[in-house]
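agent> Task received from the user: take the single chain below, predict its 3D structure, and emit structure tokens. No templates, no multimer pairing.
agent> Plan: (1) validate residues, (2) run structure prediction, (3) serialize to tokens, (4) report one or two observations.
agent> Step 1 OK, no nonstandard residues flagged.
tool_call: predict_structure(input=
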Amino acid sequence: MRLMAFEGDWTIERRIEDIRAGRPGRLDGAARFAPGEGGLVYDETGLLTLGDGPAASASRRYLWRDAGAGAIEVRFADGRFFHRFYGDEDRPAGVHDCPPDQYRVRYDFTGWPRWTAEWRVRGPRKDYVTVTTYRPAARA
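)
tool_result: status=success, residues=140
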């Protein structure tokens, strides 16, 4: 998968399993990969529900870059390195160490243009899994 294949609008559904807190969560929303800042700017918005709590607006931004040799580098909005994966693999993986926590991601592009990102996060106060499914957004 090359970086520019992600460009466009996506519908997202995220399931959250908070193992430590013992409560599920969900985010329903949209993501946009738009050209900018030397690659693609990823903007995500949605409604987040944790357990039986009220839904709240949530958003995040990342910068995706072509890192050469088939690699895609993901950076935080402020430019700090987040993780890297190889887009030419069907199920690439990446790691972000943030001591004392560790974040592991596995992407699955086998059903492209539908794809998933599964995060496994562990640390002294964190233990959760998120699975986000991306589908091309319906065109108006």
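agent> Step 4: summary for the user.
Strands lie at 8-18, 23-36, 39-50, 56-68, 71-76, 81-86, 93-98, 101-108, 115-122, 127-136.
agent> Done.
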